[in-house]
Amino acid sequence: MNADRMFELAQALAEAKSRQDVPVALKLLHPRMMLENPAFGTTARGHEENAKALRRFFAAFPDYEVDLQGHAANDDTLVCWGTVRMTMTGDRFGVVPNGTRAELPVSIRFAFEDDLIAGERFFFDLSDLCAQSGVSTDTVRHTLFGGEA
Description:
Strand content: 35-45%
Largest sheet: 6 strands, mixed
């Protein structure tokens, strides 16, 4: 797949996710899609798990928006970078956020198969998100990963 097509798919996914449009996002994903979010320690495989992960993410960040500002590609992988904006809400992370909309740098690695997105690894700084949201990174990490708070 060429770089232009890979970026076209990634941009379409970014736009669907920025609208919290799960059905449109799923149409861009391969049936064996693997979504990884190392900051939260989560992995979703397949359409059903990805739909559940996206709905849960959008419940915690209802105003999620991503702006892809650049990219680089080889034959089967695309890496994009840009900015994510989102407000942490609710108590999913064991904290009460301040309601401030966080703005963070993001990088995303995509893999492709059968003209669909087959993998997404979504990188951002959890500590930066927590700082901008007015919550303890230690408490959030404890909620996500266990161990000492």
